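Protein in question kept underneath.
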Amino acid sequence: MAATARAAWVRAQAAREQASASEQQAQAAVAQAQVAQAAAQINLDRTEVRASVDGYVTNLTARVGDYASPGVARLALIDSHSYWIYGYFEETKLPQVRIGDSVDIRLMSGGAHLKGYVESIARGITDADNPTGADLLANVNPTFNWVRLAQRLPVRVHIDSQHIPDGTLLSAGMTATLIVHPGEARAPAGAAL
């Protein structure tokens, strides 16, 4: 009888250990499910992307169901409140140009006459004959190497977005003619010049 009781006790002990192991396994499964749920919530929260500025989306390569990876561009966003043009002026014309000068802008596409002001004048350009590497300067190639030509320097012109006529299409890369009015200040008060 003692042997039977001992055997029953050993079986009960084994069943208890098995139940304890099953409990630990179930707790681990619950913890794993909670982590999976938290990861799914993060993924769900990240399915909606909000732009930091108002603008226009172009070159959209994402499709419904695609996964986005960090560092991989899926679209371009053109800020609709930061219109500007680079005009490349001969260095002989720059002594008359000042930051804040009024600028008339004529788009090559025709139609709209826009207004703006000189926002900045580049303080350096890359020497095409001196390959020094990525120096973050504008690379302006002279037309002929055998004729002495005036260099062209970038002048950044801010477009007055408050007075763009309705229906005017502005697109990055468009061509325009700039007419600078030296001495006529157009920059709004408080503009960062």
About this structure: Residues 83-185 form a domain with the Elongation Factor Tu (Ef-tu); domain 3 fold (CATH 2.40.30.170). The chain has a mean pLDDT of 82.
